[in-house]
Design goal:
The structure holds 3 protein chains of 3 kinds. By secondary structure, chain B is mainly beta. In chain B, 11% of the residues lie in helices and 41% in strands. Chain B has 1 helix and 15 strands, in the order βββββββββββββββα. Chain B is elongated and about 60 Å long. The mean pLDDT of chain B is 95. The chains are: A alpha+beta, B mainly beta, C alpha+beta.
Chain lengths: 83, 204, 278
Amino acid sequence: MQAERFIIRGDLAAPTFLPWVARHLHRLGLHGQTRRESDACVELLVQGPPDLIDAMEMGVSLGPIEAWVETIERFRINGLPDG
Amino acid sequence: MPDWTPVALLRDLPPLVVMPVTVDGVDLALWRSASGRIAAWADRCPHRGMRLSHGFVRGEALSCIYHGWSYAQSGQCQRIPAHPDLEPPEAIRVPVHHATEAGGVIWVALDTVTTAPPALAGVQPLRSVTLDARFDPASAGLTESGGAWRGTLGGVAVAVLVQPLPDNRCALHVLAESKASPTDLVAASRGIETLRRQAEGVSA
Amino acid sequence: MTDPIRDEWYPVALVSQLGPEGRDTRLLGEPVRVAWQDGAIIVTSGGHTLPSQQRYGHVWACPGTPARPLFDIPEADQPGRRLVDVGLVRVKCSPLRAVENFLDIAHFPFVHTDILGAEPHTEVGKYDVAIREEVDEVWATKVHFYQPQAAKSAAGGITTEYMYRVPAPTVSILYKTCPPRPGEWDVITLFVQPLDEELCEVWPWMALFDDDTPMTDLIHFQQTIFLQDRSILENQLPHRLPLDPGMEIPTRADLTSIAYRRWLKRRGYTYGAQLVAA
């Protein structure tokens, strides 16, 4: 089990993007939280087995058709914040 | 809409076999484990959409033929061969429907069931046949009784179960009276062929 | 405004098998004729002559205005290689799905059992994928996989190294370890002709260092592999290649597939693609 912070950048203004990410977390059985920084940047905190966090990156990097994910930077963190 | 749809005769689905079936227009993978348990699942691997009815059964699990993802009886993924160290999460699972066997017939229900499939007494499984046409049991001289269409084929008393299929096709699962002799069964089997030709000829 | 789909090059015939009667076929849903005329091959559609050329054993045509020259395979001109025209396999699938499957190694133990892969050697290690901006191509490198019989010229099991390259939306080129010639790569390509969005003809072609294996064996080996793939390709749902993976579960082993789909999405190449998850 590990926790990571994804900094997702691209053309992310579509309102479908955050719900899509939340749905994909659920599909992988991962715990996580999303926060929109701007139309071009979304933060995702995610916790789970490393192979599934990799899978989350795979899914999000393609994402819904209305969004374009340019890059995903990943950082190890100690865990998800409470709440 | 009846709760249960007949999809196959049990003897056409031996252990370790998987086959495609269709219920209410929904494609399913029907399979039987080594120990004989029957399951009917959505015919689509959650990984990349390959039909699971092309997969393979090992022990009590069904695996997708494309990348070998294997799923336990509950539908839950239990192994991803490309990532052998990963314990798949409960969230990765194939939608599972109800499947059961009664009187040598396999029945499937897509949704919650409130009744048991009809128990057909006094008959033995004969064969299943797919018709490239709709089937009107009444015009074939059959009458409904006890959850099946009853009548005679080739002089033998039979019970016929109708499984509607897409594109105006259907499958008939035919059972013959228990006391029918091998000679009777051959005659009944010929009767099924005649029935098929008539049904397909009428709609052509 | 140019249409990125019409402005690509597509294979429409094998030069060595184009008889005097020519070939009537389809491209992007429209009838196309490939024919000899005064010793040259011309490609016509709807009364117009399409830009065409002969390269890598095939006739290539562009339904629109070529956006760029046909991709380069330098190995095709390297002395000592045998060039193998495998011929065509028709597949009832999206042309993009045919390419995606060609980029996949994780299916080898299950689809090409005891040829390109075998259990328990199923793990897919990490490899690198990049879009090479200067040439606008997808490249996967440092791909390693255990193979019981990697090629006709391979005697036993070996760990094979691969590189995959997508230089055009319906073309993939595979470079793989060449057992008789360490340091060189065998080249195996998949040229896909999109007949329509859910039907294609696939033209595998090879440039190999292998002087010993009879040509028919080389062709049969590749045809066997591709017929095994066809049973997969004709049974995937949805029929078109999803550019939204919301109904799928890609993992790191699918990295090349994801990179290919991202590249199609960014280029607006949607012929044979499924835009919304279904």
